[in-house]
Write a structure and sequence with these properties.
The complex is a heterodimer of chains A (about 375) and B (about 140). Chain A is mainly alpha-helical and about 375 residues long. Helices cover about 65% and strands about 5% of the residues of chain A. Chain A is built from 12 helices and 4 strands. In chain A, strand 1 and strand 2 form a beta hairpin. Chain A starts with a helix and ends in a 5-residue tail after the last helix. With about 140 residues, chain B is mainly alpha-helical. Chain B has one domain: Up-down Bundle (Methane Monooxygenase Hydroxylase, Chain G, domain 1). In chain B, about 65% of the residues lie in helices and about 0% in strands. Chain B contains 5 helices and no strands. Chain B is flat. The N and C termini of chain B lie far apart (about 75 Å). The relative contact order of chain B is 0.04. Classes of the chains: A mainly alpha (about 375), B mainly alpha (about 140).
C-alpha cells in the first residue's frame, strides 16, 4: 500500500490529479458548510433560529437548496447576448477554484521516502498569481451584467468593476510589506533571495515573535492585515460593501437575470472566494497551518490541517459578524473609503515600514 | 521551478469549468422549460419594461479603471523589488522611493482635480464655476 502510494505521488501527473480532485472536493464541501454557517450565525445574531430542519442542526440545508435550484427552470431572457450570458457563470467558477490551489493546508506528509506537500501547486509566484486571479474574477461579473441586456444587471456589473478594481489596488499595496518582511526574515537579512511562495512564507512564521507569542506576520504587519481584510470584504462583495447586489437599489445586481442553477454557480463562486481570501489571510498573516501538536503519534499529520481550518473559520466568523453588524455604505462613501483612505493609508504604511525595515536590516543609509 | 508546477492549475481549470458546464447541462435536462413572453422580458420589478437599458454610463467609471491601471502596474514593479529587498539595500529603497513618490504625486494630483469625488453636487459647491462674460473683459 505504502509502496503503491509512493509510486503514485512520485508521478508528477498523478499527484497533480489527486491534489486537484482533493482541493475541488474540499472547496465544494466548504461552500456547503459555509453557506449554512453564515445563515446560522447571522440568525443567532439577529435573535432568530435559522435553518435547522435539513439534517442535524440543518447542516444539509445548502445541499437541499442546491438540489432545488438544479430542478428549477433556467429562464433565459430574450435580450441576452447568449454566448457571454452562458459563459459568465463558468468564468466565475474558474478563478475561484484556482486561487485555493496556492494555499498550503497542512504540513508536508512523508509516505515512505516521498514527501507530499498538502498544497495544490507550490508556485514561487503564488502571491502574484492570487492577485492576478482575483483581477480576472471581475470579468465574469462585468460580462454577466453586460450580457444580460437589462438595466439592473448592467448597473450592478459596472459598480462591481469599479469597486473590485479600486480595492484590488489597496490590497496589492498592502501585500508588498509582507513580501519585504519575508525577504528580510530569510537568512538573517543578508543576501537572501526573498519569496512570494506561500509554503515558504508559512515556514518563515515558525519562530517566535516575543516569548510565547508565535512569529505570525500579523504582529509585525498589523496595518497590512487590516487593509487586506477590509479590501477582502470589498473584493468578495460582502456587506457592508455589497453595493453590487444592493437589493433596495438594483434588485439582484449582476445576477438579476440569472435563475436556476446558473444563479447557484455564481453563489457558489462567491462563497468559495470568501473562503479563499480568509485562507490567504491565514497563510500570510496567521502562520497558515502552524500550531502546536504536529508531532503527536498517528494523528500528527491531521493537527496542522485542524489549525488551518480553525484559523480560517475564525476569520470567516469575522466576515459574518461584520455583515450582521454594519449597514451598507453609500456608493460615494465606498469610493471615498477605497481611494481616499485605504490607498493613501497603504502607501503611507508601505513607506514607513520600508524605511524602518531598511534601518533595521542595513543600518542608517549614511553609515 | 519547471513548468510542470503549473500542471495542477491547468487540470483545475478544466475540472472547474467542466463541473460548471456539466451541472448546467444536467439542470437543463431535468428542469422544466416553458417560457412565456412575459417571463422572457428583462426584469423590471413586476411592471412592463418601457425602455431599453442605457448602454452609456458615467465617465467616472472609466477614470477609475484608468487610475487602477496606473496603480496596478506600480504594484507589480514593487513586488519584483520586494523579493530582492535585502540584496538591493538602500539603493533599491531609494529607487523605489522615487518611483513611489511619483505615484503619490499622481494620487494627489487626481485628488485635487476632483476625479475621486463621486458626489458631483458637493464638488461644484466647493469650486463654483465662475465664468466671467467675455464682453465685459473686452470693455
Amino acid at each position: 500500500m505504502t509502496h503503491f502510494l509512493e509510486t503514485v505521488f512520485q508521478s508528477v501527473f498523478w499527484s497533480a490529479v489527486i491534489k486537484v480532485v482533493f482541493v475541488f472536493a474540499l472547496l465544494l464541501l466548504t461552500a456547503l458548510i459555509l453557506v449554512w454557517f453564515e445563515r446560522r450565525v447571522v440568525a443567532f445574531m439577529q435573535n432568530r433560529v435559522g435553518p435547522n430542519r435539513a439534517g442535524p442542526f440543518g447542516i444539509l440545508q445548502t445541499l437541499a437548496d442546491g438540489l432545488k435550484l438544479l430542478f428549477k427552470e433556467g429562464i433565459r431572457p430574450r435580450k441576452v447576448e447568449v454566448g457571454l450570458y452562458l459563459a459568465a457563470p463558468i468564468m466565475a467558477m474558474i478563478p475561484a477554484f484556482l486561487i485555493f490551489l496556492m494555499v498550503p493546508i497542512g504540513a508536508p506528509i512523508h509516505i515512505g521516502e516521498t514527501t507530499v506537500t498538502l498544497q495544490g501547486a507550490d508556485l514561487n509566484i503564488a502571491l502574484l498569481f492570487v492577485l492576478a486571479m482575483s483581477s480576472i474574477a471581475v470579468y465574469a461579473i462585468v460580462l454577466a451584467g453586460w450580457a444580460s441586456g437589462s438595466k439592473y444587471p448592467l448597473l450592478g456589473g459596472i459598480r462591481a468593476t469599479a469597486q473590485m478594481i479600486s480595492y484590488e489596488a489597496a490590497m496589492g499595496l498592502a501585500l508588498v510589506p509582507v513580501v519585504v518582511f519575508a525577504s528580510s526574515q530569510i537568512a538573517g537579512g543578508s543576501l537572501g533571495v526573498g519569496t512570494m511562495s506561500f509554503s515558504r512564507i508559512v515556514a518563515l512564521q515558525a519562530g517566535s515573535f516575543r516569548g510565547p507569542v508565535p512569529g505570525w506576520f500579523v504582529f509585525s504587519l498589523l496595518p497590512s492585515f487590516v487593509i487586506f481584510f477590509t479590501a477582502a470584504i470589498a473584493e468578495t462583495n460582502r456587506a457592508p460593501f455589497d453595493l453590487v447586489e444592493a437589493e433596495s437599489e438594483i434588485v439582484g445586481g449582476y445576477h438579476t437575470e440569472y435563475s436556476g442553477f446558473r444563479f447557484a454557480i455564481f453563489f457558489l463562486a462567491e462563497y468559495i472566494n470568501m473562503f479563499n481570501l480568509s485562507a490567504i489571510a491565514v497563510t500570510l498573516f496567521f502562520g497558515g497551518w502552524l500550531g502546536p501538536g504536529a508531532d503527536l503519534p498517528y494523528v500528527g499529520w491531521l493537527v496542522p490541517i485542524f489549525w488551518f481550518l480553525l484559523k480560517t473559520y475564525a476569520l470567516l466568523f469575522l466576515f459574518v459578524w461584520i455583515r450582521a453588524t454594519l449597514p451598507r455604505l453609500r456608493y460615494d462613501q465606498l469610493m471615498t473609503l477605497g481611494w481616499k483612505w485605504l490607498i493613501p493609508l497603504s502607501l503611507a504604511w508601505l513607506v514607513v515600514f520600508v524605511l524602518l525595515q531598511g534601518v533595521r536590516v542595513f543600518g542608517m543609509p549614511w553609515s | 521551478m519547471s513548468l510542470s508546477a503549473y500542471l495542477p492549475i491547468a487540470i483545475m481549470a478544466l475540472l472547474a469549468s467542466g463541473f460548471a458546464a456539466i451541472s448546467l447541462g444536467l439542470s437543463r435536462l431535468i428542469a422544466p422549460h416553458n417560457p412565456t413572453p412575459e417571463k422572457l422580458d428583462p426584469y423590471e420589478c413586476g411592471i412592463v419594461p418601457l425602455q431599453e437599458p442605457v448602454q452609456r454610463f458615467p465617465v467616472k467609471f472609466y477614470l477609475v479603471a484608468m487610475l487602477f491601471v496606473i496603480f496596478d502596474v506600480e504594484i507589480v514593479f514593487l513586488f519584483a523589488w520586494a523579493v530582492r529587498f535585502t540584496q538591493l539595500g538602500w539603493y533599491g529603497i531609494g529607487a523605489v522611493g522615487i518611483f513611489t513618490l511619483l505615484l503619490i504625486e499622481t494620487l494627489v494630483y487626481v485628488w485635487k482635480r476632483g476625479a475621486l469625488d463621486w458626489n458631483v453636487a458637493r464638488r461644484s459647491r466647493r469650486r463654483p464655476a465662475v465664468v466671467e462674460p467675455l464682453t465685459e473683459k473686452a470693455a
